[in-house]
């Protein structure tokens, strides 16, 4: 089998979270897949709102450009807001998959109803926007927040992880959902253990997105360059954006 490189982009600047995401990606990758886990050098340390996503999207595009130059055949955007997804698809040749998009798709294949467990209450609203955008609004029973910031998942205390676990239990009991979607890339390492403990599919979007990109590559499917996802119209970028030329 030919070797292939899938770039997994953590859109925030946290190296610890990038390592968590990279480990989760490699745990599910096929033997011929090399995972290139990266994050921008500049930007926001965590993504918890529309402002953060707007800044992070520039870092995503820079990493897409760098990934292409390094030979990546496909890309994963490992933030549950899927920041810059369509812009990234314009810039990329290979498939680009967001982890929220991937997790929601996978959930509908293993259950008729799913719940999402995310971090802060404000990200509940963002998740609902994505459910509507991706057409999964009627499949999602509820979106729950653990009411802790993203970086609490990396502080070593285990408090955030236990809150995720309790919220998942609550969602199964109250929502009557058949599956749980973990609504943050920093939760990527929790899915398998929670699946075993809770007896329902608990879906990590990082792993789901990696397998989707592998499937698209296996089918010989790249991002369509017919229509709105064609490469960006060539024009001179100025200032800090010159590096995207």
Question: How would you briefly describe this protein structure?
Answer:
The chain is of the alpha/beta class and 245 residues long. It has eight helices and eight strands, in the order βαβαβαβαβαβαβαβα.
Which helices and strands appear, and what pairs or packs with what?
Elements: E1 4-9, H1 15-28, E2 33-38, H2 50-69, E3 74-77, H3 85-91, E4 96-98, H4 99-110, E5 114-118, H5 121-134, E6 140-145, H6 159-175, E7 179-182, H7 191-198, E8 202-204, H8 205-218
Parallel strand pairs: 1-2, 1-3, 3-4, 5-6, 5-7, 7-8
Helix pairs in contact: 1-8, 2-3, 4-8
Q: Mind explaining what this structure looks like?
A:
With 245 residues, this protein is of the alpha/beta class. Helices cover 43% and strands 15% of the residues. Strands 2-1-3-4 form a four-stranded parallel beta sheet, with helices on both faces. The protein has a four-stranded parallel beta sheet with strand order 6-5-7-8, with helices on both faces. Helix 5 links the parallel strand 5 and strand 6. Helix 2 packs parallel to helix 3 and helix 4 crosses helix 8. The protein is globular, with a radius of gyration of 17 Å.
Features of this protein?
about 240 residues; about 45% helix; 4-stranded parallel beta sheet; 8 helices; alpha/beta; about 15% strand
């Amino acid at each position: 089998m030919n070797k292939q490189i899938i770039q997994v982009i953590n859109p925030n600047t946290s190296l610890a979270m990038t390592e968590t995401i990279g480990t989760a990606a490699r745990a599910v990758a096929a033997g011929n897949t090399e995972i290139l886990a990266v994050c921008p050098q500049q930007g926001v340390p965590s993504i918890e709102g529309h402002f953060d996503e707007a800044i992070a999207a520039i870092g995503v595009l820079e990493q897409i450009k760098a990934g292409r130059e390094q030979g990546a055949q496909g890309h994963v955007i490992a933030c549950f807001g899927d920041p810059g997804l369509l812009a990234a698809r314009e810039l990329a040749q290979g498939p680009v998959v967001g982890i929220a998009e991937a997790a929601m798709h996978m959930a509908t294949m293993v259950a008729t109803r799913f719940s999402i467990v995310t971090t802060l209450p404000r990200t509940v609203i963002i998740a609902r926007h994505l459910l509507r955008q991706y057409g999964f609004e009627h499949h999602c029973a509820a979106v729950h927040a653990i009411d802790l910031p993203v970086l609490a998942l990396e502080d070593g205390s285990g408090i955030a992880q236990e809150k995720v676990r309790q919220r998942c239990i609550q969602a199964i009991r109250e929502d009557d959902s058949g599956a749980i979607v973990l609504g943050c890339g920093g939760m990527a390492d929790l899915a398998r253990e929670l699946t075993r403990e809770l007896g329902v599919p608990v879906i990590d979007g990082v792993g789901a997105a990696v397998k989707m990109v592998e499937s698209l590559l296996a089918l010989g499917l790249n991002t369509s360059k017919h229509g709105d996802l064609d490469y960006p119209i060539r024009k001179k970028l100025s200032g800090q954006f010159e590096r995207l030329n």
